[in-house]
Amino acid sequence: MTHRHPVVPWVEQSTQVRTSTVNLMFSIENKRHFRYAPQKKFAALYRPKENFNHFIHARDYASTPQRFYLTPPQVNSILKANEYSFKVPEFDGKNISSVLGFDSNQLPANAPIEDRRSAATCLQTRGMLLGVFDGHAGCACAQAVSERLFYYIAVSLLPHETLLEIENAVESGRALLPILQWHKHPNDYFSKEASKLYFNSLRTYWQELIDLNSGETTDVKEALINAFKRLDNDISLEAQVGDPNSFLNYLVLRVAFSGATACVAHVDGIDLHIANTGDSRAMLGVQEEDGSWSAVNLSYDHNAQNEHEVERVKMEHPKSEEKSLVKQDRLLGLLMPFRAFGDVKFKWSIELQKRVVESGPDQLNDNEYTKFIPPNYHTPPYLTAEPEVIHHKLRPQDKFLVLATDGLWETMHRQDVARIVGEYLTGVHHQQPIAVGGYKVTLGQMHGLLTERRARISSVFEDQNAATHLIRHAVGNNEFGTVDHERLSKMLSLPEELARMYRDDITIIVVQFNSHVIGACQNEEL
Amino acid sequence: MGTSVAYHLSKMGWKDIVLLEQGRLAAGTTRFCAGIVSTARHASIELKMADYSNKLYQQLEQETGVKTGYMKTGSVSLAQTQDRLISLKRIASSLNVMGIPCEIITPKQVAQLHPLINIHDLVGAMYVPEDALVSSANVSLALATAASRNGVQIHERTSVSHVSVQKGRVTGVETDRGQIQCQYFVNCAGQWAYELGHSGEEPVNIPLHACEHFYLLTHPLKEPLASNLPTIVDPDGRIYIRNWQGGILSGGFEKNPKPLFTEGRNQLEIQNLQEDWDHFEPLLSALLRRMPDLETLQIMQLVNCPESFTPDMRCIMGESPTVRGYFVLAGMNSAGISYGGGAGKYLAEWMVNGYPSENVWPLDLKRFGTLQSSRTFLRHRVMEVMPLMCDLKVPRWDFQTGRQLRTSPLYDRLDAQGARWMEKHGFERVKYFVPPGKDLLDLDQSKTFYKPDWFDIVGSEVKCCKEAVCVIDMSSFTKFEISSTGDQALESLQYLFSNDLDVPVGHVVHTGMLNEKGGYENDCSIARLSKRSFFMISPTDQQVHCWAWLKNRLPDDSNLTMEDVTWKYTALNLIGPRAVDVLSELSYAPITPEHFPSLFCKEMSVGYANGIRVMSITHTGEPGFMLYIPIEYALHVYNEVMNMGQKYGIRNAGYYALRSLRIEKFFAFWGQDLDAFTTPMECGREFQVKLEKGMQFVGQEALLEQKQNGVYKRFTMFILEDHDTDTDLWPWWGEPIFRNGRYVGKTTSSAYSYTLERHVCLGFVQHFDEQTGEELVVTTDFINQGEYEINIAGQRFQAKAKLYPFSSLFAHRRRKDEVELSGYQRE
């Protein structure tokens, strides 16, 4: 285990510190933590034993219990390391987009983090794309999907003439029309090495679209489904074909053998489409007339808790497998999400898997995991990347959209998410005001109440980013639903090998809508 | 406010008065007013208004039979810091000389005056035993009752839609219940005054803006508070506390005010005017800190009542500069009840007699122009003003909001050279230049009653003015051009100004623009450009007042034109003995004293630029020139002057240096030393008046009478003797002057003279009869035969009185004949 990606630099500096930190771990008595304890996508396979060695080893040093806390500024610098905000520019003082902007952030638990996020504006069609991707068995697949999926979607949405124009430009070596404008955090990288390969696959896709020219206007829902399926297909094909470059060859295999869920939003005027594959979630924050906040789900989790999903999987396979299909709430007893990109171990035939692994590079052969064939593997594929698409017409009361990986949803209820983000975005002014009314309140009582409220508000103002604010609550919330700094500090000072046992990677995008524009669009449509 | 004006108008004998109220009388802010009558005010005119109000309310119940709830409780203003105590002592010394009882007391004495107060963090307090509490709604009703007995008609539930104007005069009022014809209209619409002013065809700018204001009412204490307990004002805690029906009423001026009605009256905002406890929290904390025992007291209500605030924290009264007969009284900055009586009286006098009985220039509507009526400006400014109500007022503080509105074309150049700025009438002016590498304290720390951190910086600028040459950008001055086809311009100006303007072309004349009583309405310099055209320079804040004054008095003659050219010229003051050398190198025109004597004006070229009006005046008594430069040449001329001036040691200077120079030369300036109640005779400027210029002029009779009978006050210069500049409190203005131990007047301005190495105060000396207090004629002997003391925040310093400036003995002067005998200067 190397420490190339220290989660908490202060903890990594000396054994002394580490010792005390671990010691502190034991002082967290609250059993509640363990409810969220290691929900590994591959619980049985993937628990790294050496982590435990560290853990026990470290415990031996714990002779002098020292209290170790991160100070609030240290906590903030961890929470804010990955935050990103984008505001849609206004034109002539009027914002013509239904999106005001978005805030996004991620907090790693794995090292390196396996979550990815993407956001881009479509330049050749209208609309904005936003997505969160939760990788498992490594981050390769999530990374590839975060780089590639939006291009596939954008191309699927392009009208025939634009596709022709682009193809002609490539053909004659002219400058290509830009398709997407990315809104990226400096830490969100694109792989340089694979760009050529990815581009060729994409080009083949649009060439096919040109040949298929149906002459019909593109339906967003269909485009999303096509793009998801096509990309997954390309990932699979690239791994089967391989690449002469050994680095790339290994890369495409890692992409195919790892997996990723995806939850993508496409916003164009008042049309909001959510395409979801796996167990990340999209949620709409709605402000009721009385000012309170409620949550509307815009995606269904594809996991064992979703009866329809279990039903679907069972329908797709012979009755004889019914018992072995879902075990311990996991697909074939192994995989938590029931839909995902990559994960060819659940898609390819056993023969294909063996052939590719054997002809593959040594690193692949040495990996126990890739060689392992899931039990009861009779009628592949067991897994699909096809998304479920939900279309929603935005209304003025729809104030924001939260896209987040399951790391958030397993710690917080969506109703709380809606309230916390809603109150954050509208600021303190809309905080429920205090009214004395006919009650008997003394000055002292009122003073105590106000001081407490102000303390709460000042913690709100530490965050400039709704996603950061949400993470602060997800990690630091106590029993009363308020952020407990001590708890936050403890959770963030976990050494990286322990962090994963207490929480998952969390990735959040909060999209804020412009109610005025939405109201105006609505009127136009009427 | 309306009832007070109606009451006083009817008392002064006016008939046919109609009072219109859109809702019910005394139902607006008046109803919610905290009802504290407090005379602890900084400005002397405000103090007089409050004092009059107090006396009026005291006898109102007897006069009208309406219960006003008047209760003489006294007030205690607390000081948590030494600086605050100094500030209170300054107020106390002005209250005392006005005959209002007032004393500085110790924290222990505070505890004796009020049982609940926590004194452990106090350094002292000021006790004003005569201050009172009233029910503001009842006072208003009492005034209305008295007014209607005197024949005033009162119409409630009548709202004014607009005021009709014909030929620049009020002719009537349109209401929702019909039309009323009238010659005079008074806008007392409080926070709606701005909107009402703008509703007519001829807009009247009344710069004020409303802010939410909160105060707390509680149930009675277990042992109800006595109704005669003094009101507590804790400015450092930003709160006031008065007894109220056995409990308390407490409000304050928070640091983060909530302005409202920026876009006019708004039903939504009116509905949202609710209790905002989170907003009130800092004030509640301050209250519980001051009176910890109140913890168990039960809350009755948190009242939210909007108050209107003005850009400079002073109320607005007077006649509109554009519409005759349109009067205004509004913008009370939350002191409506304290000022109400006095303000109503002054306005009534103004309407009946044409002028009030006191100098109200600091409150005159005409101190503002259209430039202060942007809603954005007002919104931002009142957000600064409201917290300032409680902030410490130290000498020379500047507003921070609404800045960089009017600037000279050289602004950026000067700023880059370290200029520090202040603002007058929206115009940015340089205070001084911070030399490179030198840091001053930041804004908050630099607030002091003692020696300021810029002392040495200004000292070196003054030295440079005395020994070499300095440039001061003085573009903010108001500049008018008056010309005619025939002799109309000369004839009109000869009538309106006291000095003789029939001088050869190219001469500059210092002259007062006087009122009928001989008082200064304006003090200016007029250059005769040609036989028929004149160039007039007046103080910056005269732009609106002087324009209105002249417009109303110049004959309605199409051959006579007056133009405001303020914006067309950049003015550079080239000051110092080497100014003549710099200018000589830049122009072929001869400017030696033989060709260019003092008080001369010539158009010439400077550098490449032609048509520069050069005048041999500096407004300080030092040698030098004023350059009036068409703005497009400003940068060129400035660059040329600075380049050429290098070998003569030229440098930039600011207004602080200018002030030090003019005060040590005993130059009075309008708005500070001179006002509408000061005549040239009273400030040693008889030579600027030509009583025998062959024709009549405004104020002539009054001056003739003064010449015969003598004057009742005399502008005097005082040199502080036993004052240590480094360790003693600095004088500012408004300090009482004592002659042989008896109060004789107040200072009007002061500065440190780097030449004399002493503080110089300017002020007026009066002569009160020792027995009767009657005002007597002030003679030169009276001034000269006295021992003087100046009271700075309670501490008296010996001072030497002088009626004439120091001669050339002190001032290093190159050209003897160049002395301006007198001049004016503005800050």
TrEMBL record, chain A:
A GO cellular-component term linked to this record: mitochondrion
UniProt-listed Pfam families: PP2C
Reactions this protein catalyses: O-phospho-L-seryl-[pyruvate dehydrogenase E1 alpha subunit] + H2O = L-seryl-[pyruvate dehydrogenase E1 alpha subunit] + phosphate
Signal peptide: none
Main location as per UniProt: mitochondrion
Family the entry assigns: Belongs to the PP2C family.
Protein's recorded name: [Pyruvate dehydrogenase [acetyl-transferring]]-phosphatase 1, mitochondrial
From TrEMBL, chain B:
UniProtKB keywords: Mitochondrion, Pyruvate, Transit peptide
Positions of the GCVT N-terminal domain: 410-693
Entry protein name: Pyruvate dehydrogenase phosphatase regulatory subunit, mitochondrial
Pfam families for this protein: DAO, FAO_M, GCV_T, GCV_T_C
Domain of life: Eukaryota
Reported function: Decreases the sensitivity of PDP1 to magnesium ions, and this inhibition is reversed by the polyamine spermine.
Domain FAD dependent oxidoreductase central: 353-408
All residue ranges annotated as the Aminomethyltransferase C-terminal domain in the record: 714-806
Location of the FAD dependent oxidoreductase domain: 1-350
Quaternary organization: Heterodimer of a catalytic (PDP1) and a regulatory (PDPR) subunit.
Family the UniProt entry places it in: Belongs to the GcvT family.
Gene Ontology cellular component annotations, sorted alphabetically: mitochondrial matrix
Compartments reported by the entry: Mitochondrion matrix
